[in-house]
Fold each of these.
Amino acid sequence: MTLEKLAEQKTDAHRSRNQVSRSGNSSRAASSENINSRILEIENHIHDKHILGQIGNTPLLQIRKLFKLNDSVEIYAKAEWFNPGGSVKDRAALSMILEAVRSGKLTGDRTIIDATSGNTGIAYAMIGSALGYKVTLALPSNASQERKNALLAYGAEIIYTDPLSGTDGAQQKVRELVANNPEKYYYPDQYNNPANWKAHYDTTAVEIWEQTGHRVTHFVAGLGTTGTFVGTSRRLKELNPGIVCVAFQPDSPLHGLEGLKHLATSIVPGIYDPTIADFQIAISTEEAYEMVNRLAREEGMFVGISAGAAMAASLKVASQLKSGVVVTVFPDGGARYGVEHLR
Ligand code: PMP
């Protein structure tokens, strides 16, 4: 979380406190006071010595050896495994939880529930633990053991769903549970929650802009919930409408790019905006594996499979350019996956 963002939130809290004191409705004011004191409590938690204060502001690493076209084209990656929960999803999860507390939807007695292929779940579990909320997650039973272990370590409850139905099946299960017991749960619904993409609009994009000294020309990201691509691209295009935004997806419905969606055969997330991408690229699982291995052996970066796909997509973009600054996102690290794809 950037200092700028924290300051913004504090101003928001201050504003809504003022609104409460002007309100004539005492019971609404009382519940708003509760919300405001909870927000203040959380904000006091999120400072530089708190685990949640470490979310965001990840390093921007230059790819130096995998790409040797010419000196006028540079490739950089946001190293999102530096987040405390180990992935890019810490940003979206924190944003959705803070928004829910602020709007009064997440009260202390509710359990946070969602469907996730793993990283968002780990982020909810970490943030839930740090802020004192219970967390329940539905995930396809074939999610990696390493991810299940992390969820269990943070104390989350896991509900396993059919691996053949993927994250769509897990979402379905969550909807059923919430419909049967709406008072028990708070369902952030990351596929349809604007606070997901706003996290990247407020943080990831601004960091990229600053870390490249405003030189970024191309942004490349994969589509899962689509929050990273949509939020980062929206803000970058506002900062400089000339920035070209390239989305990539798995090249087939049955793929090994965990965390990414083949949109043509999946439920399209509500937050997805098909007008943002200037180009779309399809990446095969094999290409991604190849890049995971090369990044580990040649760059000293042990990354996850979707990061390998991001590298493959960025190379395709960079190889078309005479000059430019290509920035991508490496969503997580390699330790979270099995070893089948490693040479
Ligand atoms: N890669 C991995 C490993 C992920 O967990 C996710 C999140 N589903 C993504 C990529 C895609 O990010 P987003 O949900 O923001 O589209």
Amino acid sequence: LLTIKDLDLAGKKVFIRCDFNVPLDEFGNITDDRRIRAALQTIRYCLDHECAIVLASHMGRPKGEYSEKYSLKPVAKRLHALLHHDVTLAKDVVGPDATAKAAALQGGEILLLENVRFEPGETKNDPELAKKFASMAEFYVNDAFGVSHRAHASVEAITHYFDADHKGAGFLLQKEIKYFHKLLKKPTRPFMAIVGGSKVSGKLEALINLLPKVDKMVIGGAMAFTFLKAAGLEVGNSLVEDDLLDDANHIVQEAKRLGVKLYLPVDFVVAPEFKEDAPVKYVTYQEIPADWMGLDIGLASTRLFREALSDCQTILWNGPMGVYEMDKFARGSFKLANYVAESYATKIIGGGDTADLIQRVGVDDEMTFISTGGGASLELLEGKTLPGIAALQVDGDDDE
Ligand code: 3PG
């Protein structure tokens, strides 16, 4: 895999695919610009090398046509503020405005195309659209880890229009690959995976792939109830995926066979309904009342997990322990975030919800690496090859 530093791009036109898919509030203000900041190193490197820079990104899931709601206007503004450099936003993606502006672009100038998903061909990996993107530049750099699990035109198809020495990974993509590679191939042991979130179905493949690689595994969040029910316990009205009880049992058996220490929560914060202002009780796992549901793990569980992680050298965390968006059900995730932060291990945080919760707790600086990809990092944990990364690879590579 070539990286941006291997490319002879000084003074040249470079197309950089970024993932600027950032959350916006109801007024269109960016509420978390981490993904934009994560792309700055690559953009600055290209500025330092006097490149003419064409930036491309998607935002949200528009239906293949222009929609003001999904415009990259807020991104252009934030980029300008962070870079202290002019950023021109094209009115379209590969239409007359973008094409003319890209053609006229000079070294040291930055053009941001409109949301690539305004073009219906983007999500179809359309070669014609990819060709239009490619015709805008001499080099292609992928720095969009968060969308590298999508075979889309500006991620995958576009790579076919550049010679091997004219395409490569930006600094962010490189960093993401490096950390996940080390984690999955040669972690420093003991290695603990903390897996949470609401559904086993969303994490099943990741659990199965991780199990032979880890020494300890914590299963938290509502996922735990499927495991508890599979073990014959009463879980009241808690979320359970009945069709996955066998899979849960299989994972428990596999853990035993492999000698992996499996940890489940031992107490919960329960409520009669899924509501911020619902009354709550703190109960052990043996005492979940019928008609009540578990919405967070309890203090005994966080202490148990803290004990378990205390000797670990590598910690991977993907998925919250409870409904952390609601104050009453946030304590389990927040406490665990602090415990993980205190550890001297290499601490890798999966993107999406877990990254968000780490930021809310304010311990992001304590983590070794926080991924910018939710779906993309999960697919790496599942052992999959990401099309956006595979497309940049050359024979003999072992980058994933
Ligand atoms: C993400 O937010 O996970 C990425 O930007 C990919 O977005 P998508 O799930 O809409 O493809």
